[in-house]
Design brief:
Length: 198
């Protein structure tokens, strides 16, 4: 049986993007604001001391733009993984986004037509982590650029205390560190978590 070396993952929630509903832009094509680009550059500088094996991202423009500077500073290409995309929430007519999101966090099987339940999105996201674990049996450290809802669902899969309030308090950008010790994933740090000593 193959012995897996430890693998670290840095989950990166994208920096500030232009608002939903900006003329001419779909959700997947919303870029970072000027402040968001500056925050992404600062984030890249903060990670300079971290050796990285690979960088992956959601295909959404705001996620790719957030991690691109990290790759440019190291000569690493950002590899796009569709399953790192944001959860598709969807909206019912007359129901606002905040109410729909809170209801979705309260019921993991809730979804609206055209939307994705929390359980389905979580299964997709954790499956992506496990895919990357199998791609990197020799270990290393990966950066994954993604989105607040999906990252919160990943964290919830590892810590049941993560819920709606945690998600709503998550800043842009935000970093979370996961480690796979060869047998399981665990959270080892990030906004709202006490750091775990190495």
């Amino acid at each position: 049986m193959l012995q897996l070396a430890p693998l670290d993952v840095i989950l990166v929630r994208h920096a500030e993007a232009v608002p939903v509903g900006t003329d001419g832009l779909e959700d997947a094509t919303r870029p970072l604001t000027e402040a968001g680009r500056a925050a992404a550059e600062q984030l890249a500088e903060e990670l300079d001391d971290y050796g990285l094996t690979a960088i992956y991202s959601s295909p959404y423009v705001r996620a790719v733009e957030t991690v691109r500077s990290i790759g440019l500073r190291r000569g690493l290409e950002v590899q796009v993984l569709d399953d790192l995309r944001e959860r598709t929430l969807g909206l019912e007519s007359g129901e606002d986004w905040h109410e729909t999101l809170e209801r979705a966090w309260g019921d993991p099987d809730f979804s609206v037509p055209g939307g994705e339940s929390g359980r389905d999105a979580q299964r997709r996201a954790v499956g992506t982590l496990d895919l990357l674990r199998s791609r990197h049996p020799d270990g290393g450290r990966l950066v994954l650029g993604s989105h607040g809802n999906l990252i919160s669902l990943i964290l919830q899969a590892l810590d049941s205390q993560v819920g709606f309030a945690f998600h709503m308090a998550m800043p842009n950008p935000a970093l979370y560190r996961l480690t796979h010790d060869g047998s399981r994933w665990k959270i080892t740090g990030g906004h709202g978590f006490a750091p775990v000593a190495d």
